[in-house]
Amino acid sequence: MQAIADKDGVKRYLVTLHINGDSYTRVVKANTLLVNFLRDDLDLTGTKKGCELGDCGSCTVLLDGKAVDSCLILAVEADGREITTIEGLARNEKLDRLQAEMINHAGVQCGYCTPGMIMSAKALLTRNPHPTEREVRQAIAGNLCRCTGYVNIVKAILAAANEEVGEGSGDE
């Protein structure tokens, strides 16, 4: 990462982030949060801003395959690393199984928590393809939902893990 002095004295850095299979090289301020970089610089608005304290999980993305709160990570800390956002899950215009099962199991109400919830579940299923209900609940414990009561969210994640093919799952 290369430091670049600016005329106003604010330290800026040249960073390259690998996001959803594409590389982006940009100059960012030292204090630019990853969530703001994704939303403001790249228009990847699926990653939501919630509490901005790392408490709600709405900004969860995968950083080198691990679920992280992007409101707690600086863009300069992500330099050279692999980032996956909710926009990076669908392939060839087909939803990822988790996305489809959230729809199939009515795991979405207002939808604000959904991207972060799905990203946390994706990290879980990558490291543990067949989790128990308890493991699912542990994996999404950092993601707050004020609408659903989590029952259908957990059902959706377990369905994706068990490879249940439902209507609209993208695997038909």
UniProtKB/TrEMBL annotation:
Key words, A-Z: 2Fe-2S, Iron, Iron-sulfur, Metal-binding, Oxidoreductase
Pathway terms, separated by semicolons: Alkaloid degradation; nicotine degradation
Superkingdom of origin: Bacteria
GO molecular function: 2 iron, 2 sulfur cluster binding; metal ion binding; oxidoreductase activity
InterPro entries reported for this sequence: 2Fe-2S-bd, 2Fe-2S-bd_dom_sf, 2Fe-2S_ferredoxin-like_sf, 2Fe-2S_ferredoxin-type, 2Fe2S_fd_BS, Beta-grasp_dom_sf, Diverse_Oxidoreductases
Pfam families registered for this protein in UniProt: Fer2, Fer2_2
Residue ranges occupied by any 2Fe-2S ferredoxin-type domain in the UniProt entry: 13-89
SUPFAM superfamilies in UniProt: 2Fe-2S ferredoxin-like, CO dehydrogenase ISP C-domain like
Name under which the protein is recorded: (2Fe-2S)-binding protein
UniProt xrefs under Gene3D superfamilies: 3.10.20.30, [2Fe-2S]-binding domain
